[in-house]
Amino acid sequence: MHECPPLSPSQKTPAARPSPRASGPLPWLTAVASVFAAVQLAFVVPGSGLAWDETVYVSQVGGNAPPAFFSAPRARGISYLVAPVAALTPSTTALRIYLALLSAAALVLALWIWRKVLPTPVLVGTGALFGGLWPTLFYGPAAMPNLWCALGALAATGWVVRALREGAGPTETAGAGVAVALVALMRPADGFWLALPLALAVSVVPGRRLPRMCAALVGGLVAGCAPWAAEAYVRYGGLRARLHRAGEIQGGLGWNFAVDDHLRSLAGRTLCRPCDIGWENPATAVWWVALPLLTAGGIAAARRAGRGATALLATATGLSTAVPYLFLVEYAAPRFLLPAYALLAVPVAEHVAHLYARTRHSRRPAGAAALTLALAAHLTVQLSVLSHVVRISHATTAEFAAVAGALNRLGVRPPCVVSGDHAVPIAYYAGCASRQTDGHDASITPETLHDLARRVPTAVLAPQGGAPPPGAGGTRVVPLPAGRGPGPHRTYLLPGPATGRPAATGQSS
Fold first, then answer.
1. Fewer CB within 10 Å: N-end or C-end of the chain?
2. Helix and strand element counts for the chain (H, E)
3. Residues 266-300: b if buried by 16+ CB within 10 A, e if exposed
């Protein structure tokens, strides 16, 4: 069958529209989101603590400790998102529940935008495929920006597709601009790589150029990046200086082939830096290797249904958001590719829906059973990796809390300062400020730290067997609890208020 010219008015045919039977996707989408939230609440939230990056974001707006040092690459969007809860209570459980429910609602909203261009089975498949990935489930209740970039990318692309298909009304224009602004507020670089293909699509498609939509996309990008840029001038001496420092912290931006790193990290590595590990469990990456074939099959299926241009734009935008993490950054984390997974779920869902319809219409139970088994196996692998990641995360944050409790018993109590190895999360759990004398989070000199120790209890953490901190003379050295997270530690209690207090039971190694 020959498809009509991409995105032309003649594409508005009954074959390109959802059937009347599929005109009410909201109950189905709500069901998918309910399962998405339920899995988070049942398997991820209970017993969880805040990870390193989360303590930085949450401490900016409340939580348990003074604001941690905010390094150059970070943006404050996620801090704004968690502020309504973090400002009211330091409870991690309350924050997790809030984010789990909010992410489920946002998933419904992002998919609802597509209801005029995709049939219900494809919409539901998109939500189920994306929501069933272990990184999506793990970061749903997390105070991290990547899932929100993914949902914003899905929403922005949906608004643009609607505009190209049916015209750019005020709703589509404003919606696309707001969605891009949300992504840029969370991660400015992600906002750029999202807006780029969308702006090209509304600028170069013959006969369907939408200058207002292009302006909205660019305006949304600028608005979302504005706080980050303003802070660059206040704290870093300009935008160029902050970009340079951000690049240094990320190991330098340039040609870095990280595809294999991402492949290995799918076994359950939330951060693979440096990614010099072996391929621990190849079964966890089968779906990732098959993703290009599934996407191509979905584009072909969508083309036969009159939705080829929609699938192509979703694919192109998804690939664009993946480019910097696959080829420009020298390390890997599964969360980096969440925007790409959200958008590639659209053509993959087209392919799965086509396979299901074909096996059903041909009355081939074997084909339907094979498809069901493949999807069940995929979901089983995702839940297995999720269980592993949650277990490791809980063990790590429990050790952070144990070390913080030991410091509190040693007299390092608020107001206090913690420096050294793993100081950022441990200081958060102890209720202290974190101040580093070197590294990415350097914010104080050793001399100033010693001066500060004369006024408030101050501890410097060092790994067992590691070198003592500069100027450690006169300090009291105490071993701290060991575990699966940061490992055995010693603390150097600097001369000052903390050293005059008696050591307690938390001194055992």
1. N
2. 18, 5
3. bbbbbebeebeeeeeeeebbebbeebeebbebbbe
What lies within 8 Å, CB to CB, of 364 at 6+ separation is: none
Q: Report residue 106 as tokens.
A: 């946002």
Let me know: does 400 contact 426? Beta carbons within 8 Å.
yes
Three-state SS for 414-478 is CCCEEEECCHHHHHHHHCCEECECCCCCECCCHHHHHHHHCCCCEEEEEECCCCCCCCCCCCEEE
Closest by CA position to 272, among listed 191, 344, 327, 329: 329
**CA nearest to 275, candidates 235, 332, 214:** 332
Q: Are residues 180 and 195 in contact, defined by beta-carbon separation less than 8 angstroms?
A: yes
Please give the full DSSP string across 311-326, using - where no structure is assigned: HHHHHHHHHHHHHHHH
Q: Which two tokens stand for residue 267?
A: 């076994």
pLDDT digits (tens, 9 = 90+) for 317-342: 999 999 999 999 888 999 999 999 99
Residues 6 or more apart from 473 whose CB is under 8 A from it? none
Highest mean pLDDT among 103-107, 209-213, 422-426: 103-107
> Residue 481 — pLDDT band, cuts 50, 70, 90?
confident
Q: What is the pTM of this model?
A: 0.91
Torsion of CA 315, 318, 320, 326, to 10 degrees: -120
Secondary structure, 3-state, 232-283: HHHHCCCHHHHHHHHHHHCCCCCCCCCHHHHHHHCCCCCCECCCCCCCCCHH
The tens digit of pLDDT for each residue in 95-121 reads 999 999 999 999 999 999 999 999 999
How far is residue 334's CA from residue 266's CA, in Å, rounded to a whole number?
A: 6
Q: How far apart are CA 80 and CA 93, in angstroms?
A: 18
For the chain, how many residues are written?
509
- Number of other residues whose CB lies within 10 A of the CB of residue 199: 21
Kindly state the tokens that stand for 434: 């974190």
Can you spell out the DSSP letters for 177-211? Answer: HHHHHHHHHH-HHHHHHHHHHHHHHHHHSTT---H
Contact of 244 with 252, CB cutoff 8 Å: no
Question: Rg of the chain's alpha carbons, rounded to an integer?
Answer: 25
Write down the mean pLDDT value for the chain: 89
The rounded Cα 348 to chain-centroid distance in angstroms is 21
For the residues of 365-404, what is the DSSP string, one character each? HHHHHHHHHHHHHHHHHHHHHHHHHHHHHHHHHHHHHHHH
